[in-house]
Amino acid sequence: MDHVSVREDRNCDSISALKHMCKRLIFPTSKTLIDYLRQQSEFMLNMATRPVFHPWNKSQTIHGSDVISRPLATGEFVLAMLNEHAQGHNCPYLGAKVSIEHLDETCTTVDELKSSVQQAFAATRWCHPTVAAQVHNGKELVYPVEDANQVSQWLERTVHLVQSSEGWIGQHDKLSRDVVLPTATGDYALLYLIVHPDQVAIDNIVSFDLLLHVHHTLVDGAGLRTLLNLILQSLVKPTSESYHWGEETQRLAPSALDAAIISDEVVEQLNNMPKEIPLPPLGGNATSRHGTGVVMHTFEKDNFLQSLKYIARKHGVKLTGIVQAALLQTVYSKAQPCEEDALTVISGYDLRARNLQKPWSDRNQFVGAAVGLEMMKLPVTQLAADGSGKESLWSAAKHIQQNWASLAERKDVAAGAEMRRQATGFILQMAMAEVNKEPSKLGLSLNYVSDPPGSNQLDGTYQQNGRRTFKLEEYQLVTDESTPKLSCRSHSWKDQLTLEISFSYKHYTKEFVAGVLEAWAQQLVSRLQEEY
């Protein structure tokens, strides 16, 4: 394994440059700001007739900074408790590979790139201040209102330059063993710039990796993609106008519940519910962390994704249906369950598109935790024992499709976590029991998320005034996993489908999970071959 080093620039010149930079960042365009404020006004008018459950308020000074805080929503509280008691379980990462195409004779030095990434992260805080928020006492989300000097110190703490030939995956493996958010300095979001030592040696960077590690209470998968897109946009934008830190607090996002479309009946029920969440003793996980592994498979063959979509439509299902059914078929074959068993899939889904009000439903507007959870059960009798029965797989895909169609028609889903508020203690106890399980064979319960196409949120190409172009070559969301469940995802980017599984090293070896991934991929290849 290559030596991994973290480079720290602590000289006075770099700190002075950061201070200057933090005073001169610019919100993308004045038109963007005007549109944003107009949409905010419309949002406030729409919300004026109902109570705000988790309002932002000025609060007492903490460590010399004024703060703005709001109570945690129930879903956010669950994530905060899991992170605290289960050593970072369920914390999300987003890794990305980026190439640089130089359009003139200049080159990109490592110092220039690090400075640009710091500037981009500051611009990200300006647009989405949630990245600098903190969780206090497991009950409040707190945003410190800081001046330019304090923001520059925040950048020094949160943006790290790492030299490694292992890219973001190697850095993730290390962090999943060694780092639990918040950091010792109280930060809940970190950004790593990872460059190959060979490129550092010649000081000409032509490719690099980025890794975002953010506390799940602050952000979900869609929010991470929004942050990544803004970071890459900001890498190529000049910062020529001044602004004052503190004004960014106007853009602190509400809780997903307060941005949600929910009925008057549910609003009344929520308003009458007890605010306190009773908690039984939760205990804690072992202090040592086994870490989370990641395996991925991308179908690079031309037209594979389009062909798979075509045969899915032919059988009356969407891409998610066939990909999820192939995953269940694979797990069934590996686990060899009894006939009376059922496969259980817990799927997270984004609330933005159908369940949040404007402007928060618009592309890349909402950064926060806006995820619903759906549990699907599939009797094993619907799947073939040898994994070769294509009719049973399409039957499973249709069953899954019906589940998702039913969910799309359901009302008030954004209030689901709040409506289960009084069961929160039991839910957390069950989660902790899973975390503390000893290693065993592969079970019939797993997590699966079908992410939307990356083009829904990511521009992909980011050009800087004819000088150079940054291209997002690939990316992957990863969830830290501490239980025996496999956490599986799929997404498409550049007309290619990628499958991913993250897993706990406490329960599985990388070789075993790589075998599961290969079998999952082969299920899809086989379905395609049968149709053509």
From TrEMBL:
Domain of life (superkingdom): Eukaryota
PANTHER family recorded: CHROMOSOME 7, WHOLE GENOME SHOTGUN SEQUENCE-RELATED, CONDENSATION DOMAIN-CONTAINING PROTEIN
UniProt protein name: Condensation domain-containing protein
Organism: Emericellopsis atlantica
